[in-house]
Amino acid sequence: MFNLIRAHCFSLSRARTTWLLFAASVVCALVMLLFLKRIGASESSLGGIAFFFSDLNVVTLIGAVLATLLISNDFDNRTMQHTISAGHSRAQIVTSKFIVYWLFMCLYLLPFVAASFWIFYADAPYTFGVPMGGMISAMNSTTQISTAVALLLSLIIVYIGQTSLAVMLAFFLKKPTFVIVLFYAISVLCGQLAANNLNWLNWTPFGGDAITVTADSSLLAICLVSLRFISVCVGITILYFRKTDIH
């Protein structure tokens, strides 16, 4: 399976879209900082625009596109069929895809992590002007570096948990358009439901407890919920892919 992981990483690293996504992540993090700075100067009407460039929203879009790039394309160009014919088990294929996906999602989150530490050490206020979740709110909830690091690591696990659903959808639906639209719709719907404080949603990384993590949150419980959700996504995908005919 290690060879599969290396092959997937090499393939993604050669794709132009991979680095366009990273560039988009960098630009969004910088634009978010610019808007948040102005909001901190009392231009609160910019809060909605800043949210569009925030980690909460960008992770959803980039996660969906990355899933199609890593998985849907392999179905279209028959790479998946060749991998199976080469003797790799379907469980190995699914697991390697998830691992590579998580690695690249961590890469795409790095600009927002850097922006978060900038906010952590900045003297000027950086705020959405309204209650909001994600890395920015997490940084505004603490003044201790150890707590800030723990919050960011927890949110990375939460985001990986959320976007693991996109990987599962890519194996189920295969078509990039369907995957992107459906995953984004699910994320938006869960965001609306989380705003209504639905308790059952907290059993997933889409719950309000996960996306609004602060220094007062139970980080271990939030991480365990996300890891359990990841395990479920991987398990369901393996079971489904084992029984799927690849043409």
TrEMBL record:
<feature type="transmembrane region" description="Helical">
    <location>
        <begin position="48"/>
        <end position="71"/>
    </location>
</feature>
<keyword id="KW-0472">Membrane</keyword>
<feature type="transmembrane region" description="Helical">
    <location>
        <begin position="145"/>
        <end position="171"/>
    </location>
</feature>
<protein>
    <recommendedName>
        <fullName>ABC transporter permease</fullName>
    </recommendedName>
</protein>
<keyword id="KW-0812">Transmembrane</keyword>
<feature type="transmembrane region" description="Helical">
    <location>
        <begin position="178"/>
        <end position="198"/>
    </location>
</feature>
<feature type="transmembrane region" description="Helical">
    <location>
        <begin position="20"/>
        <end position="36"/>
    </location>
</feature>
<feature type="transmembrane region" description="Helical">
    <location>
        <begin position="98"/>
        <end position="121"/>
    </location>
</feature>
<keyword id="KW-1133">Transmembrane helix</keyword>
<feature type="transmembrane region" description="Helical">
    <location>
        <begin position="218"/>
        <end position="241"/>
    </location>
</feature>
